[in-house]
Amino acid sequence: MLQQTQVKAVLPFWERWMRELPTIESAARADSHTIHKLWEGLGYYTRVRNLQKAAKLILTQHGGKFPKRFEDILALPGIGRYTAGAISSIAFNQPAPILDGNVMRVLTRIFGITENPREKETNQRLWQIAEELVCDSRISISSTAGKNSKLACSHLNQSLMELGALVCTPRNPQCTACPLEKLCVAFKEDRVAELPNLDKREKATARTFVAFVIERDGRFLVRRRPEGVVNAHLWEFPNIEILGQSGDEKGGNGHGSFARAARELGVDFHNARPICTVKHSITRYRMTLEAFGVKSKRTPRISDGVWLPHSQLDSLPFTSAHRKILAAVEVV
Q1: 49 vs 8: CA distance, rounded Å
Q2: Which residue ranges does the chain devote to CATH 3.90.79.10?
Q3: Residue 296: CB partners within 8 Å, gap ≥ 6?
Q4: Alpha helix segments (H runs only) across the chain
Q5: Phi and psi of 201, rounded to 5°?
């Protein structure tokens, strides 16, 4: 859940998940509807499908117990080098390196690395530094007596992440409060604001969609997104992307992009009423979704849809944008 998502956003989802599916076996046995409904609103839904695949693999290959070896953790679906390192070091105190955005920023500033940390050679150098640090922490701390020696690797990696999140921040870093201030090359050379040397973000691409909340005899037409697409397995109202024109060109007289979208879906748009406009983002795309309500006497050209009463819609796992449309329908 924490991949690509902040802790404060994850917490309520994690608590709900653990109430409903508290064990590896329960996660592995749950149906698709259940896992997607529990994940609804958290985004990046490939994560929940990988989570279930991993749970099933743990049952079949590891006797239902989460593996402790780094190589076995890395082999689980949805777990890459960073996540495997975080689990290995934090949960099992193994000398496995981690390199997320926070740690990358800390290391490039401390060691004065001016090359782009996302380039292959520089990135590998950072991984090597992270590995040397976590290995050295285990050796140096374990050589001294004390209770903390048992958690050297765990504490080191968590400290790096917290330092980047709370002190060595992207903007306005708290250098004078940093325990590594005297060791930091970027601070000594007054280059903190220049590092890390990242490429400029690609400009966001605007995309416009039109969605139709089609009602017939007290039932609404919805469809489930297919495998292999963004938000796969989640539900939505029939919609279509408007290419080459703004959604504002919908027009009220059967002209413009709105009318074209309705005709393409086989929707009778003459009695359509606006419901809401939803703006949201997915990766580098900035989406505008215009939703319209339609009472239809004829069946639209949507072969993969099902007609359901309003009372059943809330139990379906909707995409975040279409969940907002559903909420607006309730008050229309």
Answers
A1: 22
A2: 205-329
A3: 214, 215, 216, 221, 267, 268
A4: 7-20, 24-29, 32-39, 46-61, 70-74, 81-86, 92, 101-110, 120-142, 152-166, 185-188, 256-265, 310-313, 320-329
A5: -65, 140
Q: What is the pTM of this model?
A: 0.82
- C-alpha 78/C-alpha 81 separation (Å) is 10
The rounded distance, in Å, linking the Cα atoms of 65 and 55 is 9
CATH class of 205-329: alpha beta
Q: How would CATH label the architecture of 7-194?
A: Orthogonal Bundle (1.10)
For residue 13, the SS3 value is helix
Per-residue pLDDT of 136-157, as tens digits, reads 876 655 444 455 456 799 999 9
| Matching residue, tokens 């990046």 | 44
Query: pLDDT tens digits for 266-299?
Result: 887 778 899 999 998 887 889 999 999 998 777 7
Contact 186, 110 (CB under 8 A): yes
Closest CA to 156 of 241, 96, 234, 231: 96
